[in-house]
Design goal:
17 helices
Length: 353
Amino acid sequence: MQYVGIYDKNGYVAEQIKSMKFWSVRNDFELTEIIHDKNEIFTYLNSHRPNIFLLVEEKNEGFASEHLKEITSLFLGVKVIWIGHEKSYEIVRKIFLAGAFDYLIQPVDEKMLEDSLIRVYDVIGLGYVVNDLQMKVDALIDNIFLGGGQEELIIQNIIDQIYEDWKQDAINCQLIADKAKNHIYEILIDRKPWLEKFLYRNDFTYKFGFSLLRKEEIMKDWVRCFKEASKMVVKYQMIDDRLVYRIGKYVVVHVDEKLSLESVAKGVYLNPSYVSHIFKKVTGMSFTDYMTEVKVDRAKVLLRDSKLKIYDVAATVGYSNSEYFAKTFRKKTGYAPVVYQKMLAELYDQNEK
């Protein structure tokens, strides 16, 4: 939960903010108190320690940037959003130099205030993940690139720390866990860009309007997602072998194109016969089987989207004939693509209930 306080001498702007629909829609923000006496600001901040403080400037009140600087230097964890009248560059610059997180012009636009509050949340969440969870996050990433095996233990340690640090607050803990999950995904993709083709991005991204999950459900979801990442790393670690690296990487990078032994050989400037021979020798798998395996794995990710038609999936992975694609997919998985897609939809709908 992000706690928000307001200072507003006359109270008009504060009442406008209090009546905004935002507070009923976002149950992870709570407006705690409205202060009208500037002499009570420090007492309030010291006793309540809000995450966000909205400071409404009144004309001719004399609440200068020096006072703001004192607040931001004494209460480092509080993000101050200044709500003022001035639009001049010099004034706005002074406010930011004094430590304000954001500057909004009166009258306050609800959408702009909402965006500002959410940005505060994003900064707080990512800062915590990068600074407080980094060692455990690094351990999980290293484990994935080593082929997995310790995901459950490491994930339990990460989630346990989140719940301890965020005082068991269910909403905050889930939002921070989502932020951490997305952060880990981005690092995985940054280090091995080809992984993006074989992991369903929506599994790792923050979802607005989410349903509240229990701690055990969050851990189960993490384990499923990151075990899948480990599985893909293990499956395609063959492409890190120097003899077939260029060949394997070309296939996974160009998986959404129409590929053949000849086109791949041309793409890596090698003879087709040599590509076929060396790939089989190093991996124990024929090049054609590998190429088909890569395309089927890519198709599995695309089939997570229940709105995609089978012919669209086939076309995306480079098959001009959807019937041939369906036959190939069934041979590899034991399921027709449409059946597999339906199974996935039912499975993930059930998990989200």
